[in-house]
Design brief:
about 90 residues; alpha+beta; 4 helices
Amino acid sequence: MREYDKILDLDNDVQAQLFDAILSDEGIPHLVVSYRDPAYSSIFQAVRGWGHLEAPAIYREQIEQIFDDLKHAEMVPESDDEAVDDQEPRR
């Protein structure tokens, strides 16, 4: 059995599902750990965060790079040219 290390924290369920799908497509072994406890609703998630991702340490750099690329892609605004193209001409 491979030993898994905590690689990074996850912010929410959507991020966890997306990242899980990407890592599965890349063939990277991993485990998504949620801090949600049904007995306590979402109390632990409010205090500790949504959860984290575990994987073998040899994949750490690759996973962190994928995560950084994903975060950057979510934050990149539309270029001014694209925003102008979507607007109707002024009269």
